[in-house]
Each structure stands twice: as C-alpha cells, then as structure tokens.
C-alpha cells in the first residue's frame, strides 16, 4: 500500500506542525519553571549563602 503524493505532503505538513507544537510546549514548560523559580526561590539558596559566608570568614586575614 503506497501513499499518494497528496497524502505524503499532508503527512509531512502534519509532522512539521506536530514538532512545532512539541517545541512550543517545551518552551512554555521552561518559562513556567523559571517563573516559579523566581517567585519561590531556590531551595538550596540558604545553604549556598551559608557556605559562601563561612568561606569568606575562613579566607579573611
């Protein structure tokens, strides 16, 4: 069973649209995660800043 030229072109267009929608969804997911991170902050930020502070104290003359 072979596809007609019209069916092949239609299939190509549908796959192109599918990939475009998939990339758009990924982009939206990334944007949402960044927005959430900006609102809530990083879970490790307190630990990170404590490490930096103790390192500064150790390195001070």
Automatic annotation (TrEMBL):
This protein's UniProt keywords: Nucleotidyltransferase, RNA-directed DNA polymerase, Transferase
Protein origin, superkingdom: Eukaryota
GO molecular function: RNA-directed DNA polymerase activity
Protein name from the UniProt record: RNA-directed DNA polymerase (Reverse transcriptase)
Organism: Trifolium medium
């Amino acid at each position: 069973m072979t596809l007609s030229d019209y069916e092949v072109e239609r299939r190509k267009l549908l796959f192109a649209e599918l990939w475009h929608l998939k990339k758009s969804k990924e982009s939206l997911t990334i944007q949402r995660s960044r927005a959430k991170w900006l609102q809530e902050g990083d879970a490790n930020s307190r630990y990170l800043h404590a490490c930096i502070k103790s390192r500064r104290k150790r390195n001070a003359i």
